[in-house]
Specification:
- The structure is a homodimer of 311-residue chains.
- With 311 residues, chain A is α/β, with parallel strands linked by helices.
- Chain A has two domains: 182 residues, NAD(P)-binding Rossmann-like Domain (Rossmann fold); 116 residues, N-(1-d-carboxylethyl)-l-norvaline Dehydrogenase, domain 2.
- In chain A, 51% of the residues lie in helices and 12% in strands.
- In chain A, a hairpin with an 8-residue loop joins strand 6 and strand 7.
Chain lengths: 311, 311
């Protein structure tokens, strides 16, 4: 029988930015993490990054100090797949976004991981029914897709394949919840899942507005960050419109459905062409690549304030 | 010559929720406001609501106290159009969302308002080139569309018609800025302007996801409020994707354009049918109409915290 600490150990496979963020989430909630990446030196670098991210979260009051006691002793660097999955209660795979690689990797993880242990993938777009189609233990395969920056944003999309067992889905949701994260469960697989579909719908319209010369990317961004986005940080689109009519959503739809339907026609939008036509230049002027890190830090710092305020 | 206080007086025509919010914005920035509504008793009720909203903003530290000195003396209740526009530097019309009424109203306002004073409309969808087409002073007509709740959300869409003078557009933007609001200027008129187009694009996809049984409205709402919305409260969609690839927006588009384009197909979506099929029932269960006021208050309180935190 395992002791309590071992029972709360999880495997992080693939230790790029996403894998590191998962480790931060698990460690800050009292879990132990076992890290593996096939590329030499990556796990050592990841351990450093993870510690830095934990320090920032601590400084911003977003971590319960108790959970960070001796956290350094809770990071295990594994040298192989069989080693990383030893004694874990959960596997989070954050490998490359490539169907062939993900198929192979999932098969290999499945081979060495104890029965009934969930194998979740961070993929932002490949459904488990594709990458785990030929995996013998497919019933424990599931997508758990985090949102960038994953150590801050609470939402995690949970997308079971038709062959994923209900117990696995429930177990994964419980583990996600135990980190203070918010599992968003899909009833069915769909390309892009829901986060990227909602983002995509907004992006397509944003690109269209730029293409048609209605407003600049900067003005569109401000319409969101100083307008709609402030509402959406507090409540989703349905609750928003439900509260925007005295009769609730029905009244809103009666009043505005036609207006919205009239706005949208089919389009032959080409994003890459827009980039070439000046959109990239505009954005690089506003947010130079050299300032990326600084801007990421600013974004994260604001997000942390916002999140600690919301909770 | 006018004294300084008179130079900072504005006319609020139509004193429902939107007109009241405009008055709150102007008063909390040190302006005087002159209120008019054709329906008897409305301006008196509005004055009460305005005071209550100002108190809440003050309690939440969102108003510079100096601007509220003797603010009660800065609210004038007018009994006619000619009276409300007397000695004002700006007119904000928030009448009904009806082309015929807005045409008539704008003509009447234009007749009695001193030359060169901007006449802005709060319309959320009727362009000035429609409602002001036959107005002699059309060059000073413009849309200034606020976002609900307008006393909190900084963004205000500014949509000049082709006949609106550049000086008027600049003056209106300056006045909006002087209230600490954020003017979002459109280069061209378009149905829905940009805020409702961006919201509409997201809503259509949200309705589609519900229609296709992918996720519930509640899960979709959580994907926004616990995910995308937190980012969008900090930055717009373009800056978001620009920061989501090491190479900026170009790299993002190279990687993800196909994914997004593949997600979307034409649809025969019918919102009203979805409402009947259970969507309304679901939402009423989650957010009963009897709790509307409480939920609005909660929303506003969270928004204030978020906004005072962001600034």
């Amino acid at each position: 029988m395992k002791n309590k600490r071992e029972q709360k150990k999880v495997a992080i496979i693939g230790c790029g930015l996403i894998g590191q963020s998962w480790a931060v989430n698990f460690l800050s909630s009292g879990f132990s993490v076992s890290l593996f990446d096939p590329i030499e030196g990556v796990v050592e670098a990841a351990k450093k990054e993870i510690k830095e991210k934990l320090d920032v979260l601590k400084t911003n009051g977003l971590i319960n100090d108790g959970n960070l006691l001796n956290y350094s002793d809770k990071i295990f660097l594994a040298r192989s797949l069989p080693e990383v999955v030893q004694d874990v209660i959960y596997v989070q795979e954050s490998g490359p976004e490539d169907l062939y690689i993900k198929k192979k990797l999932t098969q290999n993880i499945d081979k060495v991981t104890q029965e009934h242990i969930p194998i979740a993938s961070s993929t932002s777009g490949i459904p488990a029914s594709s990458y785990a189609a030929d995996v013998p233990g497919q019933s424990r395969c599931i997508v758990a897709h985090p949102i960038n920056p994953p150590h801050l944003i609470p939402a995690v999309e949970i997308i079971p394949a038709p062959f994923t067992s209900k117990i696995i889905t429930e177990t994964v949701k419980k583990i996600i919840c135990s980190m203070g994260k918010q599992p968003i469960e899909l009833k069915k697989e769909i390309p892009g899942f829901i986060v990227n579909r909602l983002q995509g719908a907004l992006l397509i319209e944003a690109f269209n507005l730029v293409k048609d010369g209605i407003a600049s990317a900067q003005e569109i961004d401000r319409a969101i960050s100083e307008g709609l986005g402030l509402r959406w940080a507090i409540m989703g689109p349905f609750k928003t419109i439900h509260l925007n009519a005295p009769e609730g959503i029905k009244g809103y739809v009666e009043r505005y459905e036609n207006m919205y339907q009239d706005m949208f026609k089919s389009s032959d939008l080409n994003w890459a062409e827009l980039i070439k036509d000046g959109l990239e230049t505009d954005l690089l002027k506003l947010y130079p690549l050299e300032e990326r890190e600084e801007q990421e830090e600013q974004r994260n710092s604001k997000l942390m304030q916002l999140i600690s305020h919301k909770t």
